[in-house]
Amino acid sequence: xxxxxxxxxxxxxxxxxxxxxxxxxxxxxxxxxxxxxxxxxxxxxxxxxxxxxxxxxxxxxxxxxxxxxxxxxxxxxxxxxxxxxxxxxxxxxxxxxxxxxxxxxxxxxxxxxxxxxxxxxxxxxxxxxxxxxxxxxxxxxxxxxxxxxxxxxxxxxxxxxxxxxxxxxxxxxxxxxxxxxxxxxxxxxxxxxxxxxxxxxxxxxxxxxxxxxxxxxxxxxxxxxxxxxxxxxxxxxxxxxxxxxxxxxxxxxxxxxxxxxxxxxxxxxxxxxxxxxx
Length: 278
Prior knowledge:
Number of strands: 10
Order of helices and strands: HEHEEEEEEEEHHHHHE
Helix content: 25-40%
Shape: globular
Radius of gyration: 19 Å
Structural class: alpha+beta
Low-confidence stretches: 1-28, 234-248, 250-269
Number of helices: 7
């Protein structure tokens, strides 16, 4: 069995508080074998609405999470039509004091730290924060366009923030055919990479390179490698390849605590953009 787990992917979550302090979600995630975290390009392609919005109100973290709700004040639409009035998102809440953590404005690969605990998707937001939300309609209601560990809702300082600039690029690129998409991304990567003394431009160029590289590896494959390289399998004879995804799911449950007993499978992997898009 796995005796301990100190994964680099879990470290940001551990930094914001004890996992036991998180309310037990009704549907804590269990990623299915083959699930891939969507790339930023896939996330932009699959979202029906990408909106910069202020968190104007919502539920606190008490009670059943199915009764939680968040109210957004739309500011600008990066994809789709800007809603005329407030946006309501269900099963999200205002963050308690311990969890009022903002996204790193210069991190473009990993999701918000709260995405790595509980239901494996960000669900808590500080009142008054401005964030970029990637949304889809399901049963007539807006909800997250991304699955577990996706960058579906990241705090940004404003419309000109680097993450917003990259998002606009990915929305444009996702609407193009393979070679045109590749040419656009390569040109923008080259333009940013040429700004050698601008560290933010270098980080943005690196993210564009990740989109050009294609889909992410399956999450369970990545976790098995991370755990193997970190020496997280302590029992004699235990290996990162044992029993398919069961070791990974056991590790995730160890991170989440007892609330993981009642969980639902994660959504399927996003549809790849195709070989001709790389």
